[in-house]
Amino acid sequence: MATRWGICSAGKISQDFAVALKTLPSADHQIVAVAARKLDDAQEFATKHGASRAYGSYEELARDPDVDVVYVGVIHPHHLKTCLLFINAKKNVLCEKPLAMNAREVKEILDAAKRNNVFLMEAVWTRFFPASEEIRRLLARGEVGEVKVVRSEFAVPLMHVPRAVQKELGGGAMLDVGIYCLQFTSMVYNGEKPESIQATGVCFESGVDETVVVTLKYPGSRLAVFTCSAGVQLPNEAVIAGTKGTIKVPYPMWCPTSLVVNGKETQYPLPEPSMPLNFLNSTGMRYEAEEVRQCLLRGLKESAIMSHTDSLLLAEVEDEVRRQVGVVYTQDCQ
Ligand SMILES: NC(=O)c1ccc[n+]([C@@H]2O[C@H](COP(=O)([O-])OP(=O)(O)OC[C@H]3O[C@@H](n4cnc5c(N)ncnc54)[C@H](OP(=O)(O)O)[C@@H]3O)[C@@H](O)[C@H]2O)c1
């Protein structure tokens, strides 16, 4: 039986997620319903992506008995209340990154998912790319020896995107793009907690972080360094340096289609989209969607590849980085 998706919000990433789902067999994945704050937006989305039902409120989607799992694509200050709405209605949830604004909110979502016995995953799509699977395989068999340094960067000028710069919309480089560097580091170091975190950064006038440089130290003299920015462009690559070699993730490191392992390059091409995308390589969201399907088929409540503990660790490090840089959201004061 197909996994029946409900889509929450008709925004940019939801549009791309719907296109990504269409690269998978329709016998496995179907969009049955979409909800947006305005019914017109939902209807337009439903027509474009072949959803049979369109709702003008998220509550109606939460009540739809034919929806197995909801993809939450609203902006991140609204992740907490939107996730709680669906989770408390006993819906499984795949929520866009960052799962919430801070660790307190993330814990609230995770607790609700456990209480309601539903599946929940933060949509860290990168982890499910074939290139990322290959990185995990290479590390597990010690291809580059012991990893000593992980370096990554994700920096793009986003000054023209209101949700990337305005504080009340959840703006800031760490939560928008830095999370990709952090999740990469955390994946390579197997979800270990860093023993120290050092962050320095500069902020937009709005008070959210424009550019941040973070150094993480892990037990056993292992390091990671990343740069994220919503103000400038960097090459946006990543490197894993071990005692026996290196793995390089060329641009774009957050949605990789190639790897260079000890100098040898391999391509991991993505399927072509059936319609224009808002973001680069978005058909790669098909892999996280398939992970959700496989977890649901097996009755799992979380993914082993992007677990609840993983989401909490990301949020805790993000909180500490923001504390050191001096970025405070209203959600931090509640
Ligand atoms: N995985 C990725 O590669 C990727 C890429 C981009 C973004 N994202 C994540 O996806 C989320 C959405 O990003 P986006 O670029 O799609 O954003 P967007 O198009 O600006 O907004 C998404 C939706 O959020 C709701 N929304 C927007 N502004 C709102 C407001 N002021 N109050 C209440 N609701 C509001 C709207 O829902 P309605 O349609 O219901 O009105 C809107 O369609 C973010 O958390 C972001 O971090 C992920």
From TrEMBL:
Residues 4-121 form the Gfo/Idh/MocA-like oxidoreductase N-terminal domain. It catalyses: D-xylose + NADP(+) = D-xylono-1,5-lactone + NADPH + H(+); (1R,2R)-1,2-dihydrobenzene-1,2-diol + NADP(+) = catechol + NADPH + H(+). Residues 134-247 form the GFO/IDH/MocA-like oxidoreductase domain. GO terms for molecular function: D-xylose 1-dehydrogenase (NADP+) activity; nucleotide binding; trans-1,2-dihydrobenzene-1,2-diol dehydrogenase activity. The lineage of its organism: Eukaryota, Metazoa, Chordata, Craniata, Vertebrata. The gene is LOC101170260. SUPFAM superfamilies: Glyceraldehyde-3-phosphate dehydrogenase-like, C-terminal domain, NAD(P)-binding Rossmann-fold domains. This is Trans-1,2-dihydrobenzene-1,2-diol dehydrogenase. Keywords: NADP, Oxidoreductase. InterPro entries: Gfo/Idh/MocA-like_OxRdtase_N (IPR000683), Gfo/Idh/MocA_domain (IPR050984), GFO_IDH_MocA-like_dom (IPR055170), NAD(P)-bd_dom_sf (IPR036291). Homodimer. The keyword NADP applies. Coiled coil: none annotated. It is an enzyme of class 1 (oxidoreductase). Belongs to the Gfo/Idh/MocA family. Pfam families: GFO_IDH_MocA, GFO_IDH_MocA_C3. Its EC number is 1.1.1.179, 1.3.1.20. The keyword NADP applies.
